[in-house]
Amino acid sequence: MHLLNGKMIIRFNMKSYPLLSAAISIVEWTLDCEKDRQVADKIEIYPLNKAQFGNNENKLLAEKGFGNCLIKSFDGIDYYVSIAINTEKCKKADLSEREISSIILHELGHILNEPELKIEPTLEYCFINGLGFNKQILNEIREYNSIAMETYADYYASKYGFGKELISTFQKQDKNFEQKIGFKKIRINKILNQEVLIGGFMKNKNTAGNIKKSQCLIFQK
Ligand SMILES: [Zn+2]
After folding, report:
1. Does the pLDDT of residue 18 top 50, yes or no?
2. Sheet of 67-74, strands arranged across
3. Is 56 helix (H, G, I), strand (E, B) or coil?
4. If 0-12 CB within 10 Å is exposed, 13-18 middle and 19+ buried, where does residue 127 land?
5. Rounded to 10 degrees, what is the CA torsion of 115, 121, 127, 131?
6. Cβ distance 19 to 100 under 8 Å?
7. Distance between CA atoms of 103 and 130, rounded to whole angstroms?
8. Reported pTM
9. How far is the CA of 127 from the centre of ligand 1 (A)?
10. Which residues lie near ion ligand 1 (Cβ < 5 Å)?
């Protein structure tokens, strides 16, 4: 079902998922920036059981968190993004409408407020560029990138006034489930300190495919 311009595309029966529908409405009322509204109709929202994952690994990972963001297609100009919300888990953890909205905004942040990432000096990259490979440096840069991606996505939710709710979802994830939130202290501190982290729309265009893949692996870490 394709809704009005400026609205996200809902891929489920709204009556079957009243909480998720209400959370999406809150997000749509919240997005007051023209730029954000223009891209809304490229974004599809699914409950987890209706989302299509390219591989089982991503699906298994998605089951561990509240939300997940995947690029369905991107050719440098046009794109479609799907956001899957694990409605069952949201219910089990007793998330409120606004808490689910904060998760949707965080996932939107992965698209609309991406940081500039550092190049990851993988073995292949070092070989091609005649550099010495160092596993520890690679891991440090990967961690730096992961923190940047998560904190910039968090900022997108907190700039719209959902920081408190997002922090509450971190606590509920940790309290209720085995999969814990990664970089929790750093993320909470940045939200509480209202640190301004301004990225851009799909900043990492050249490597969007690869980055989105790794991004969905670390969602809600
Ligand atoms: Zn994330």
Report:
1. yes
2. 9-10, 43-47, 79-85, 67-74
3. helix
4. exposed
5. 110
6. yes
7. 42
8. 0.87
9. 31
10. 150, 153, 219
CA atoms within 13 A on the CB side of 93: 25
Structure token pair of residue 21: 């529908």
Q: Is a pLDDT exceeding 80 seen at residue 211?
A: no
DSSP tag of 182: T
Collapsing DSSP to helix, strand or coil, 108 comes out as helix
Rounded to an integer, what distance in angstroms lies between the CA atom of residue 198 and that of residue 116?
Answer: 10
Q: Could you tell me where the beta strands, DSSP code E, fall in the chain?
A: 9-10, 43-47, 67-74, 79-85
CA of 1 to the centre of ligand 1 (A): 26
The sign of the CA dihedral 54, 76, 211, 50 is negative
Compute, in angstroms, the gap from residue 151 CA to the centroid of ligand 1.
8
- Ordered by start, the domain boundaries in the chain are 9-217
Q: How does pLDDT run across 6-16, given as a tens digit for each residue?
A: 788 899 999 99
Distance 66 CA to ligand 1 centre (A): 10
Determine the pLDDT at residue 209. 43
